[in-house]
């Protein structure tokens, strides 16, 4: 049975609202979360092709990744072509408005992943064209028994090094085990952010080889923090700020202050539920707001 809902003048059909996508947390609650968080979430996904990770039968069952926007997408939903493997481009959805978030949530797309670049704005000369990256991302991934506390220590050092290079970093939880650093940059050569991020990861690993690793080799990671620089490849994506994560219970990739990073002594201090995030936004607004104004050129 489908229900008809109206969101900012758009009419959508949603279904299976009572289905639990997490234990005790229904699809209706997922949709409600994304509608309520739209004002702070949309600036971080708007203009970027979205990759959806979907759990149609809930987090206790399997998931799959959807890049291609299905043929039956609403006619008002923005879609753009992205170069794929081989010669076949992939048509991605672009979530530019609250109704687009409802469309995605109705597909049980708990996770929203976007690249570090945007398309040219509608109506501009660059409309539909991928622009160079405007964001550099460092994904700090702890190898057990290391946890997010170790990530925080590495993040503080990375913040110092980035500042020395004239760059401003902000932090968010991954919503899983790690931490993400987001660094706004002025668009330049498409591969420049990846090159810089890799050099930065190697530098930190050389400084603290017992605590940091930059290589992809998983055997090197136990007890260390992997500084994943590879998500700056224009073909890769990172979970968006305020996105839910498909874990055993609903957690959120949540912006945090540097004071919170510095004060973290237990992993559970940086675990946030949808309710936590609503309260944080009411208190702090979007801790990532205004990042574009901090954009600087890579050294």
* Overall number of structural domains: 2
| CATH 2nd-level architecture of the largest domain | 2-Layer Sandwich
Report the mean per-residue pLDDT as an integer: 94
Strands ordered across the widest β-sheet: 13-14-10-12-11-18
Low-pLDDT sequence parts: none
Let me know the number of strands: 18
Q: Into which percent range does the helicity of residues fall?
A: 25-40%
Rounded to the nearest angstrom, the radius of gyration is: 19 Å
Tell me the name of the CATH class of the largest domain: Alpha Beta
Outline the biggest β-sheet: 6 strands, mixed
End-to-end Cα distance, whole Å, is 56 Å
> How many H/I helices?
6
Strand-and-helix sequence, N→C? Answer: EEEEHEEEEHEEHEEHEEEEEEHH
- Structural class call reads alpha+beta
As for the CATH topology of the largest domain, it is Alpha-Beta Plaits
Q: Strand share of the residues?
A: 15-25%
List keywords for this structure.
LigD_pol_dom; globular; six-stranded mixed sheet; EC 6.5.1.1; 6 helices; Non-homologous end-joining DNA ligase; ligase; Alpha-Beta Plaits; four-stranded antiparallel sheet; DNA primase, PRIM domain
């Amino acid at each position: 049975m489908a229900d008809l809902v109206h969101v900012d003048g758009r009419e959508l059909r949603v279904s299976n609202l009572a289905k639990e996508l997490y234990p005790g947390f229904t699809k209706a609650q997922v949709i409600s979360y994304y509608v309520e968080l739209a004002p702070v979430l949309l600036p971080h996904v708007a203009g970027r092709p979205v990759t959806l990770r979907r759990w149609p039968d809930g987090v206790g069952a399997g998931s799959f990744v959807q890049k291609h926007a299905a043929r039956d997408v609403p006619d008002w939903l923005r879609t753009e072509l992205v170069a794929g493997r081989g010669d076949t481009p992939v048509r991605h959805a672009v979530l530019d408005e609250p109704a687009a978030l409802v469309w995605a949530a109705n597909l049980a797309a708990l996770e929203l992943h976007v690249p570090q670049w945007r398309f040219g704005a509608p109506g501009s000369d660059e409309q539909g064209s991928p622009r160079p990256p405007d964001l550099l991302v460092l994904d700090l991934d702890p190898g057990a028994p290391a946890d997010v506390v170790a990530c925080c220590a590495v993040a503080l050092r990375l913040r110092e090094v980035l500042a020395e290079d004239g760059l401003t970093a902000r932090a968010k939880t991954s919503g899983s085990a790690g931490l993400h650093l987001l660094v706004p940059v002025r668009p330049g050569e498409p591969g420049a952010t990846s090159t810089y991020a890799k050099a930065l990861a190697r530098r930190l690993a050389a400084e603290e080889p017992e605590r940091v690793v930059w290589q992809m080799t998983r055997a090197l990671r136990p007890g260390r923090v992997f500084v994943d620089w590879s998500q700056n490849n224009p073909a890769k994506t990172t979970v968006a700020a305020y996105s839910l994560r498909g874990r055993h219970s609903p957690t959120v990739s949540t912006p945090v202050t540097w004071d919170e990073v510095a004060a973290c002594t237990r992993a559970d201090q940086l675990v946030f539920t949808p309710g936590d995030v609503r309260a944080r936004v009411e208190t702090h607004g979007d801790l990532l707001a205004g990042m574009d104004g901090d954009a600087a050129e890579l050294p």
